[in-house]
Amino acid sequence: MKRLRICTFNVENLFTRFRFHRSLTEDDRRRLIRDGWETEDMFATRHDDPHANLVAQALAEVDADIVALQEIESLDTLKRFNRNQLSDLGYQYAMCIDGNDSRGIDVGILSRLPFLYMRSHQWDERTDRPGEPVFGRDCLEVDVLLPSGRTLTVYINHFKSIAGNREKTMHRRRLQSVRMAEIIRERFGDDPSEGRWIILGDLNDYLPSDGLAPLLGLPWLENVVNRLPADQRWTHHYAPDDEVHQLDYILPSRAIADANPDSVPMIERRGLPLRTESYSGPRFPTGDPDSKASDHCPLAWDFII
Protein backbone atom coordinates (compact mmCIF):
# COMPACT_ATOMS: atom_id res chain seq x y z
CA MET A 1 0.00 0.00 0.00
CA LYS A 2 1.12 3.53 -0.72
CA ARG A 3 2.22 5.63 2.22
CA LEU A 4 0.40 8.95 2.32
CA ARG A 5 1.18 12.21 4.06
CA ILE A 6 -1.46 14.48 5.57
CA CYS A 7 -0.85 18.01 6.82
CA THR A 8 -2.61 20.83 8.64
CA PHE A 9 -1.45 24.44 8.37
CA ASN A 10 -2.93 27.72 9.57
CA VAL A 11 -1.54 30.05 6.89
CA GLU A 12 -2.43 33.25 8.82
CA ASN A 13 -4.58 35.41 6.56
CA LEU A 14 -3.85 34.20 3.04
CA PHE A 15 -5.67 36.98 1.20
CA THR A 16 -5.89 38.36 -2.33
CA ARG A 17 -7.66 41.60 -1.61
CA PHE A 18 -7.43 44.76 -3.67
CA ARG A 19 -6.33 48.36 -3.27
CA PHE A 20 -8.43 50.71 -5.37
CA HIS A 21 -6.83 53.76 -6.96
CA ARG A 22 -6.62 55.74 -10.23
CA SER A 23 -3.26 54.64 -11.60
CA LEU A 24 -4.06 51.21 -13.01
CA THR A 25 -1.78 50.39 -15.91
CA GLU A 26 -2.94 48.54 -19.00
CA ASP A 27 -0.85 45.54 -17.94
CA ASP A 28 -2.55 45.57 -14.55
CA ARG A 29 -5.98 45.68 -16.18
CA ARG A 30 -5.16 42.70 -18.43
CA ARG A 31 -3.85 40.77 -15.44
CA LEU A 32 -6.96 41.44 -13.36
CA ILE A 33 -9.30 40.38 -16.15
CA ARG A 34 -7.20 37.26 -16.77
CA ASP A 35 -7.56 36.32 -13.10
CA GLY A 36 -11.32 36.75 -13.28
CA TRP A 37 -11.66 40.21 -11.75
CA GLU A 38 -13.69 42.63 -13.89
CA THR A 39 -12.91 46.16 -12.73
CA GLU A 40 -15.35 48.05 -15.01
CA ASP A 41 -15.15 51.71 -13.95
CA MET A 42 -13.13 51.01 -10.82
CA PHE A 43 -9.36 50.89 -10.88
CA ALA A 44 -7.54 48.39 -8.73
CA THR A 45 -4.38 46.41 -8.26
CA ARG A 46 -4.23 43.18 -6.36
CA HIS A 47 -2.96 43.36 -2.78
CA ASP A 48 -0.26 40.69 -2.76
CA ASP A 49 0.69 39.53 0.73
CA PRO A 50 4.46 38.89 0.67
CA HIS A 51 4.20 36.01 3.10
CA ALA A 52 2.43 33.86 0.47
CA ASN A 53 5.82 32.89 -1.01
CA LEU A 54 6.93 31.59 2.39
CA VAL A 55 3.66 29.69 2.81
CA ALA A 56 4.31 28.05 -0.56
CA GLN A 57 7.89 27.20 0.40
CA ALA A 58 6.75 25.60 3.65
CA LEU A 59 4.14 23.51 1.84
CA ALA A 60 6.69 22.45 -0.77
CA GLU A 61 9.02 21.23 1.96
CA VAL A 62 6.24 19.26 3.65
CA ASP A 63 5.09 17.80 0.30
CA ALA A 64 1.88 16.32 1.69
CA ASP A 65 -0.76 14.49 -0.35
CA ILE A 66 -3.65 16.09 1.57
CA VAL A 67 -3.39 19.55 3.16
CA ALA A 68 -5.97 21.01 5.54
CA LEU A 69 -5.74 24.80 5.63
CA GLN A 70 -7.06 27.50 7.93
CA GLU A 71 -7.38 31.26 7.32
CA ILE A 72 -7.99 31.19 3.56
CA GLU A 73 -9.94 34.14 2.20
CA SER A 74 -11.90 32.29 -0.48
CA LEU A 75 -11.90 29.50 -3.02
CA ASP A 76 -10.69 31.96 -5.66
CA THR A 77 -7.75 32.84 -3.41
CA LEU A 78 -6.93 29.18 -2.86
CA LYS A 79 -7.15 28.33 -6.56
CA ARG A 80 -4.99 31.27 -7.54
CA PHE A 81 -2.41 30.46 -4.87
CA ASN A 82 -2.36 26.83 -5.98
CA ARG A 83 -2.05 27.76 -9.65
CA ASN A 84 0.62 30.42 -9.28
CA GLN A 85 2.77 29.18 -6.40
CA LEU A 86 2.12 25.46 -5.91
CA SER A 87 1.95 24.29 -9.51
CA ASP A 88 4.77 21.77 -9.05
CA LEU A 89 3.07 20.03 -6.12
CA GLY A 90 0.26 18.40 -8.08
CA TYR A 91 -2.73 19.58 -6.08
CA GLN A 92 -5.40 18.87 -8.65
CA TYR A 93 -8.23 19.23 -6.14
CA ALA A 94 -9.03 22.30 -4.04
CA MET A 95 -12.01 23.40 -1.99
CA CYS A 96 -12.84 26.25 0.37
CA ILE A 97 -16.37 27.06 1.50
CA ASP A 98 -17.24 30.47 2.94
CA GLY A 99 -17.99 29.97 6.62
CA ASN A 100 -19.13 32.06 9.56
CA ASP A 101 -16.04 34.14 10.33
CA SER A 102 -16.68 37.89 10.08
CA ARG A 103 -13.10 38.50 8.88
CA GLY A 104 -13.57 36.08 6.01
CA ILE A 105 -10.99 33.52 7.15
CA ASP A 106 -12.18 30.09 6.08
CA VAL A 107 -10.97 26.51 6.19
CA GLY A 108 -10.00 24.74 2.99
CA ILE A 109 -8.26 21.72 1.52
CA LEU A 110 -5.73 20.91 -1.19
CA SER A 111 -5.34 17.33 -2.37
CA ARG A 112 -3.64 15.16 -4.95
CA LEU A 113 -6.45 12.68 -4.44
CA PRO A 114 -10.03 13.21 -5.65
CA PHE A 115 -12.93 14.27 -3.48
CA LEU A 116 -16.01 12.04 -3.31
CA TYR A 117 -18.17 13.97 -0.88
CA MET A 118 -18.07 17.10 1.23
CA ARG A 119 -20.27 18.70 3.83
CA SER A 120 -20.18 21.98 5.72
CA HIS A 121 -21.15 22.05 9.39
CA GLN A 122 -21.27 25.84 9.66
CA TRP A 123 -25.00 25.78 10.47
CA ASP A 124 -24.76 23.31 13.35
CA GLU A 125 -26.44 24.84 16.43
CA ARG A 126 -25.15 23.68 19.79
CA THR A 127 -24.57 26.91 21.73
CA ASP A 128 -26.44 28.56 24.58
CA ARG A 129 -27.85 31.17 22.20
CA PRO A 130 -30.65 30.01 19.88
CA GLY A 131 -29.64 30.35 16.25
CA GLU A 132 -25.93 30.76 16.99
CA PRO A 133 -23.75 28.23 15.15
CA VAL A 134 -21.31 26.26 17.25
CA PHE A 135 -18.50 26.62 14.71
CA GLY A 136 -17.40 30.23 14.41
CA ARG A 137 -15.73 29.28 11.12
CA ASP A 138 -16.70 25.79 9.98
CA CYS A 139 -16.01 22.11 10.34
CA LEU A 140 -15.48 20.96 6.76
CA GLU A 141 -16.07 17.23 6.20
CA VAL A 142 -14.44 15.76 3.07
CA ASP A 143 -14.30 12.18 1.78
CA VAL A 144 -11.09 11.54 -0.18
CA LEU A 145 -10.65 8.59 -2.55
CA LEU A 146 -7.41 6.76 -1.71
CA PRO A 147 -5.23 4.88 -4.23
CA SER A 148 -6.38 1.63 -2.57
CA GLY A 149 -9.99 2.42 -3.51
CA ARG A 150 -10.88 3.06 0.10
CA THR A 151 -12.31 6.31 1.40
CA LEU A 152 -10.70 8.53 4.03
CA THR A 153 -12.87 11.12 5.77
CA VAL A 154 -11.10 14.25 6.96
CA TYR A 155 -12.55 16.92 9.25
CA ILE A 156 -10.96 20.37 8.97
CA ASN A 157 -11.41 22.65 11.96
CA HIS A 158 -10.52 26.10 13.24
CA PHE A 159 -11.78 26.42 16.81
CA LYS A 160 -12.47 29.58 18.81
CA SER A 161 -9.37 31.69 19.41
CA ILE A 162 -7.91 32.15 22.90
CA ALA A 163 -7.19 35.81 22.06
CA GLY A 164 -8.18 38.16 24.83
CA ASN A 165 -8.69 35.59 27.56
CA ARG A 166 -8.14 31.85 27.39
CA GLU A 167 -10.51 30.98 30.22
CA LYS A 168 -13.35 33.20 29.00
CA THR A 169 -13.24 31.54 25.57
CA MET A 170 -12.81 28.00 26.92
CA HIS A 171 -16.54 27.27 27.00
CA ARG A 172 -16.88 27.84 23.25
CA ARG A 173 -14.02 25.43 22.45
CA ARG A 174 -15.62 22.88 24.73
CA LEU A 175 -18.89 23.14 22.78
CA GLN A 176 -16.95 22.74 19.54
CA SER A 177 -15.12 19.68 20.91
CA VAL A 178 -18.39 18.08 22.01
CA ARG A 179 -19.97 18.74 18.64
CA MET A 180 -16.95 17.37 16.77
CA ALA A 181 -17.24 14.12 18.76
CA GLU A 182 -20.97 13.98 17.98
CA ILE A 183 -20.30 14.40 14.26
CA ILE A 184 -17.89 11.44 14.32
CA ARG A 185 -20.41 9.25 16.15
CA GLU A 186 -23.23 10.25 13.80
CA ARG A 187 -21.14 9.14 10.84
CA PHE A 188 -19.27 6.14 12.25
CA GLY A 189 -21.41 4.83 15.12
CA ASP A 190 -21.12 4.83 18.90
CA ASP A 191 -17.67 3.23 18.72
CA PRO A 192 -15.93 4.88 15.77
CA SER A 193 -12.54 3.35 16.58
CA GLU A 194 -12.42 1.28 13.39
CA GLY A 195 -13.48 4.08 11.06
CA ARG A 196 -11.21 5.61 8.42
CA TRP A 197 -11.20 9.24 9.51
CA ILE A 198 -8.79 11.94 10.67
CA ILE A 199 -9.59 15.21 12.48
CA LEU A 200 -7.23 18.07 11.63
CA GLY A 201 -6.82 21.74 12.28
CA ASP A 202 -6.07 24.64 14.54
CA LEU A 203 -7.96 23.83 17.74
CA ASN A 204 -6.66 27.06 19.30
CA ASP A 205 -5.73 25.66 22.69
CA TYR A 206 -2.90 23.78 24.35
CA LEU A 207 -2.92 20.93 26.83
CA PRO A 208 -4.19 20.46 29.44
CA SER A 209 -7.42 22.06 28.28
CA ASP A 210 -10.96 21.73 29.61
CA GLY A 211 -12.09 22.97 26.21
CA LEU A 212 -10.42 20.19 24.23
CA ALA A 213 -10.90 17.39 26.77
CA PRO A 214 -14.29 16.21 25.39
CA LEU A 215 -12.51 15.44 22.11
CA LEU A 216 -8.90 14.64 22.93
CA GLY A 217 -9.88 12.54 25.92
CA LEU A 218 -11.79 10.04 23.80
CA PRO A 219 -10.29 6.53 23.59
CA TRP A 220 -11.07 6.10 19.90
CA LEU A 221 -8.55 8.63 18.56
CA GLU A 222 -4.93 9.63 19.15
CA ASN A 223 -3.14 12.97 19.30
CA VAL A 224 -0.13 11.81 17.29
CA VAL A 225 1.92 14.87 18.28
CA ASN A 226 2.32 13.14 21.66
CA ARG A 227 4.68 10.73 19.89
CA LEU A 228 7.25 13.53 19.81
CA PRO A 229 9.45 14.48 22.78
CA ALA A 230 7.58 16.86 25.07
CA ASP A 231 9.76 19.85 24.21
CA GLN A 232 9.19 19.34 20.47
CA ARG A 233 5.38 19.26 20.40
CA TRP A 234 4.77 22.96 19.84
CA THR A 235 3.28 24.23 16.58
CA HIS A 236 2.58 27.90 17.31
CA HIS A 237 4.63 30.92 18.36
CA TYR A 238 3.01 33.76 20.31
CA ALA A 239 5.24 36.73 19.57
CA PRO A 240 4.36 39.17 22.43
CA ASP A 241 5.55 36.74 25.11
CA ASP A 242 7.76 34.55 22.90
CA GLU A 243 5.69 31.55 23.99
CA VAL A 244 5.29 28.30 22.07
CA HIS A 245 2.46 25.76 22.38
CA GLN A 246 0.72 23.04 20.44
CA LEU A 247 -2.40 24.59 18.90
CA ASP A 248 -2.52 22.40 15.76
CA TYR A 249 -3.62 18.78 15.83
CA ILE A 250 -3.79 15.61 13.75
CA LEU A 251 -6.20 13.16 15.39
CA PRO A 252 -6.57 9.86 13.49
CA SER A 253 -9.02 7.17 14.47
CA ARG A 254 -7.67 4.47 16.76
CA ALA A 255 -7.58 2.00 13.84
CA ILE A 256 -5.42 4.31 11.68
CA ALA A 257 -3.17 5.26 14.59
CA ASP A 258 -2.64 1.62 15.61
CA ALA A 259 -1.90 0.63 12.01
CA ASN A 260 0.95 3.17 11.97
CA PRO A 261 2.57 2.79 15.40
CA ASP A 262 6.03 3.95 14.36
CA SER A 263 5.00 7.01 12.35
CA VAL A 264 6.11 10.19 14.12
CA PRO A 265 4.73 13.54 12.93
CA MET A 266 6.92 16.26 11.47
CA ILE A 267 6.68 20.00 12.22
CA GLU A 268 8.14 22.42 9.64
CA ARG A 269 9.48 25.45 11.56
CA ARG A 270 11.68 27.16 8.96
CA GLY A 271 8.89 29.59 8.10
CA LEU A 272 9.01 31.23 11.54
CA PRO A 273 10.46 34.74 11.84
CA LEU A 274 13.94 35.32 13.27
CA ARG A 275 12.42 36.95 16.36
CA THR A 276 11.18 33.52 17.49
CA GLU A 277 13.86 32.99 20.11
CA SER A 278 12.34 29.67 21.18
CA TYR A 279 13.53 28.21 17.88
CA SER A 280 17.17 28.54 16.88
CA GLY A 281 17.11 26.28 13.83
CA PRO A 282 17.38 27.25 10.14
CA ARG A 283 14.95 29.62 8.43
CA PHE A 284 13.88 30.11 4.85
CA PRO A 285 16.01 32.95 3.41
CA THR A 286 13.97 36.15 3.09
CA GLY A 287 16.25 39.14 3.75
CA ASP A 288 13.68 40.43 6.26
CA PRO A 289 13.97 39.38 9.91
CA ASP A 290 10.24 39.91 10.43
CA SER A 291 9.10 37.84 7.43
CA LYS A 292 7.23 34.65 8.22
CA ALA A 293 5.08 32.03 6.59
CA SER A 294 2.76 32.08 9.61
CA ASP A 295 2.74 32.15 13.38
CA HIS A 296 1.76 28.46 13.04
CA CYS A 297 3.94 25.66 11.68
CA PRO A 298 2.77 23.04 9.21
CA LEU A 299 2.14 19.76 11.03
CA ALA A 300 2.32 16.58 8.94
CA TRP A 301 2.00 12.83 9.50
CA ASP A 302 2.61 9.77 7.32
CA PHE A 303 0.21 6.84 7.37
CA ILE A 304 -0.92 3.70 5.56
CA ILE A 305 -4.49 2.40 5.63
Describe this structure in words.
- The protein is of the alpha+beta class and 305 residues long.
- It has one domain (4-17, 48-303): Endonuclease/exonuclease/phosphatase (Deoxyribonuclease I, Chain A), CATH 3.60.10.
- The chain has 6 helices and 15 strands.
- It is globular and about 60 Å long.
In short:
With 305 residues, this protein is an alpha+beta fold. It is built from six helices and 15 strands.
| CATH fold-type name | Deoxyribonuclease I, Chain A
Low-confidence stretches: 39-47
Nearest-integer average pLDDT = 90
Distance between the termini: 8 Å
Which structural category do the helix and sheet elements fall into? alpha+beta
CATH architecture: 4-Layer Sandwich
Structure summary, number of beta strands: 15
Entry keywords:
6 helices, 305 residues, Deoxyribonuclease I, Chain A, 27% strand, alpha+beta
Which helices and strands appear, and what pairs or packs with what?
Elements: E1 4-14, E2 16-20, H1 26-34, E3 44-48, H2 52-62, E4 66-72, H3 75-85, E5 93-96, E6 106-111, E7 115-120, E8 139-145, E9 151-158, H4 166-188, E10 197-202, H5 213-216, E11 236-238, E12 243-245, E13 248-252, H6 254-259, E14 266-267, E15 299-303
Parallel strand pairs: 1-4, 9-10
Antiparallel strand pairs: 1-15, 2-3, 4-6, 5-6, 7-8, 8-9, 10-13, 11-12, 14-15
